[in-house]
Amino acid sequence: MPSTTLQKKPSDRTSGKLFEFQAQLPRLPVPSLDETLPKYLKTLEPLLSKEKLAKTKKTVEEFAQSAQGKELQRRLEARASEPGRVNWLAEWWNDLSYMGYRDPVVPYVSYFYAYKDDKLRREPTKRAAAIVRAAWEFRRQVSTGELAPEMARTTPLCSYSYNYMFNATRIPVKPSDYEATYDLATNERITVVRNNQFFDLQLFHDGQLLSAAEIESQLDRIVEVADSDAAVPVGILTSDNRDLWADNYKLLSEASPKNAEILEKIQSSAFLLCLDNTRPVTREEYHRTYWHGDGSNRWFDKSLQFIVCDNGKAGFLGEHSSMDGTPTCRMNDYVLDQTLNNKVDLGNGAVRAGLPAPEQLRFVTPPPVVRAIEEAGNRFKSVVDQHQLRVLQYEGFGKDEIKKLGFSPDGFVQMAIQLGYFKLYGQSRATYEAAATRKFAHGRTETCRSVSNESVEFCQSFENPLLSAGEKVAALQAAVKAHGSYAKACSDGKGVDRHLLGLRLSLKPGEEKPAIFQDPAYAESSHWYLSTSQLSSEHFEGWGFSEVVPDGYGVAYTIRKDSVIFHIAAMKNKFGLNSDHLAHLVKEALGEMRLAVVAAKLSETAAKPKL
User: Fold this and answer.
1) Segment 427-467, tens digit of pLDDT
2) What is the pTM for the complete model shown?
3) How far is residue 582's CA from residue 588's CA, in Å, rounded to a whole number?
4) CA-CA distance, 534 to 540, in Å (whole number)?
5) In the annotation, is 320 catalytic?
6) The one catalytic residue among 287, 292, 320, 483
7) CA–CA distances in Å: residue 555 to residues 273, 390, 414
8) Fewer CB within 10 Å, N or C, the chain?
């Protein structure tokens, strides 16, 4: 068995360049009620009727003046100032949104990145070996702390989540899971899965890291062994409802002492490498492959999974619970920069004689375990079949052109999503955009509420044929400005959603819930009909995640220099959602917005007096 040194929580490392600013990071602030409540009401204006808004305004004003409101604020401020508490929100947020969330992590929690093709390495095991070498170098820099901290211009970002990147896994437990981390120095191994069979691959031999040629050779051995046999798809268990998986985790581990050893080997390994026997071609095919696959050739609890298909297509799947997308985006961008641009150190081209064969990890699967696997497989298929997906590759323009037009790329694309939705449904509805709060210690995200009075006026303006291009562009400019202002407030820890959540969670058992949280507007304004987020890399062919409500869409987008890629997911159910239609109308919106800006500029130029 490996030496694992399991920890439920990693130590808050402070050594090395990666953590050089960690001790200096400010704490996440607790905004005042006077800051949050007027801002909250402002976000409700475009979503509620005048009558509902008036009722809500009265409720909010009463809460602001009430003894209970002031007491909840006092409690939250006291929590934030407790000695030893790094972040007042972190523990609550991690449990409520992730560890205590019981729906399957795939498709509902995890996210994926689709890689550009590597034309230098079209053979799957050759590409996989290069990815492993590049990822291992990134891991080495994390382990030694020599990796530079992330910066938002001149502001350092929290590096704490890097503790959960490698040799980490989510463990299923009732009523709330936990994240286990393992010692990097004593677990210099990866888990490889092929044809539903798991293998333990040591990456060092005689004290020396395997070269890319040696890793490729070992992967070829794994493919040969796995493809000559069949195995019960134990990995599908990790796709299940977390309570069911917790029960089956116990069933699996207690079926044989060998199973407990295998589980520990998988969980303590640096990351998972999935060698799929599929050959996806279309964008929808490979997005679905990385998003969920067939559910079997995976271990969805692992923090990092690299996926390589038989035709050389590749991608990445991240378990979201303890780490948001920005650190893994950085890591994947590094891996792709190294491999696609042939910068990766492949090591010696020779394959040393006597490399020990990778260890095949054979689970013992008595009939109760097999039944559990079959049932989990049926549930996985049912969940996946309920989902529709459309990938929009918009090649009309990208980041460079949007900047030339005078707009923030993210704000411009957010408004295109708003206009596309407005075209489809004739109204604007509550929209979530993830805003990072990593300038604060242990910071994660705040909700940027993208719908504003200005965004609604923008949508209405662009659908009004009587308005001039100049009037439409003025509305667009106002909407993008309002979006940028709110997004900045969120990044500064001054959004409304996390503060309101903190106030609500400050209630003690048995205390009456304040009217502000029983008001229908509170639930309606956080029912995310559009759940959106941007992560961008020139090396990505998009990324994605699911919707967060049954009657909503999940819209992940990548803004490249000359294109924008949208992953639009939704359920197939009684609400009649249509990802194809939304994609079509977002594309239409982008074109109309650019044409309006160009027309307005031409009109402005023509109106200037000639000298």
Assistant:
1) 999 999 999 999 999 999 999 999 999 999 999 999 999 99
2) 0.95
3) 10
4) 12
5) yes
6) 320
7) 27, 10, 10
8) C
